[in-house]
């Protein structure tokens, strides 16, 4: 990967239109479908069903739950136009099992990457995971109650790629 090749994605990985507050999903598949629909609405994925098939196939390979109540379903897919992240913050009292050892998730980040962007995919995943391991970052996402603030938190956490 060439240094700086992700810079053009930094400000547009997510936006307030890709954030679902008070998400009420019955299953992790339902959560992924709700978030993918937001990506589809913005033209970031070209085929909703095809992309969800890729996400669910990835989910069957390995659990995508992180400690601290985080789910990060993700897929590299031919149906993704640009690296994007859709964010769901569950409604109070709701949580979803993404297979994390410490319990269910209340913050879900759906990470969509073009099929050809293997190294960028790993870099975004690793960078998000580093941020999400910090309790203050997770709490900031949960407490924001504002789609703009959540989008800004996610985007700013991805500005400092280690090239």
UniProtKB/TrEMBL annotation:
Residues 12-157 form the PTS EIIA type-2 domain. PROSITE patterns: PTS_EIIA_TYPE_2. Gene3D superfamilies: Mannitol-specific EII, Chain A. This is PTS fructose transporter subunit IIA. It comes from Arthrobacter alpinus.
